[in-house]
Amino acid sequence: MIEQRKSIAADGYNSRDTAVQRARRRLKKIVGELEIAKSLSHANIIEYLGGYETSHRICIVHELVDGHDLLQQILDYSKMDERTAAYVFEQLLHAVAYCHSQNVWHRDLKLENVLISTSQHVKLIDFGLSEKSAGRLKTVCGTPLYCAPELLFLNSNTRETGVEGGPADVWSAGVLLFALVTGCAPFDDSTFAALRQDVYRNQVKYPDSMSSSLQEFLRLIFVSDVRRRPSIPELLAHSWLRENVAAYHDEARGFLKGPRTASVISDAETVEESTTSYDEETPEDSSYRDLLYDETTGSFDDELYVSDDASSPVHHRKQKHPPTRTTSPSSSSMTHPASTLFDHLF
After folding, report:
1. Residue 56 domain flag
2. Which of 56-60, 204-208, 291-295, 316-320 is predicted most confidently?
3. Could you please report the per-residue DSSP string of 251-280?
């Protein structure tokens, strides 16, 4: 009985210790996001205004955008015409190119992370998975559907050499563009195993309604060999992009619906971790995940998104936590700046 009590006490201590370690790792990621957000200044990147802590969570405050994200755009209109998509995509490329010039790799480009205002102005958001590094990246993260093949097939051998952040972001941007124009995913993402197989075989099905010029543009992006994948300057110089952007300006027509205020505060909470190993992923697992490899534990942090419609990228809209809609914190909820808490814990 005494030994059993000792064992229970030890287990309880270990559980508390593990919880503290997880909380510290999650907070460290939030601090990293804040540092990157504060260092960036670009017309097509959301402006960081500050952060504060309530009794239950840490919040990041950004500029107000009178619009919505590109996923909501697809939900409202099913797809976007090529001229408007080219105009939106050009702005996104400029934002990503600026990030790369600052050695910042976004690593989670997707419809949900791009806001568009009622005046068709694009803002790149959410740097929670971003990394600032002048070298190659040796961790895996992002949303699987948007992940480049070099990330989907990263293993213990190739992880030593790492991957380049630039080409990986270009691939993700290509998936985003395909979804924006067609309203569906370029690859079968019904299961993680099916996605890997589709990406490996490069089985992209281009609809007949898509122009041959855009098909050529996307085929340049969807190349497994990173040495052959085009750079952002090369994409900006492509005829499909230049001609459609010029046509958009000439036509000068509006595409989006009326004003819709986006949340000024984004919840900076991170999700609970999973001890599931990447190498132990089962083909039957149909959960849609954001992957973040933790080198200290040898596991991934997972945020589960269960697909309502596996053929469409819009299933990411299902969230574990409702977005915070408060536009101005009350004096009672604002205890002290988030940096104060960060300084205490690190």
Report:
1. no
2. 204-208
3. HT---S-S--PPPSEEE-PPPPB----GGG
**The pLDDT value given to residue 56:** 81
CA proximity to 86, closest of 260, 222, 251, 228:
251
Residue 337 lies in a domain: no
C-alpha distances in angstroms, 141 versus 86, 189, 257? 27, 17, 33
Structure tokens at 147: 């992940």
The tokens for 344 are: 């205490």
Please list the alpha-helical segments (H only) found in the chain. 2-39, 70-77, 82-101, 149-152, 165-182, 192-201, 212-221, 232-236, 239-251, 338-345
Is position 7 within any domain? Answer: no
Given this model, what pLDDT does residue 208 score?
94
For 101-121, how does the pLDDT look when each residue is reduced to its tens digit (9 = 90+)? 999 999 999 999 999 998 889
For residue 339, being part of any structural domain is answered with no
* Residues annotated as catalytic (active site), given as ranges: 108
Residue 158 corresponds to which amino acid? T
Number of domains in the chain: 1
Rounded to two decimals, the pTM is 0.70
Size of the chain in residues: 346
The residue segments making up the domain with residue 147 are: 61-326
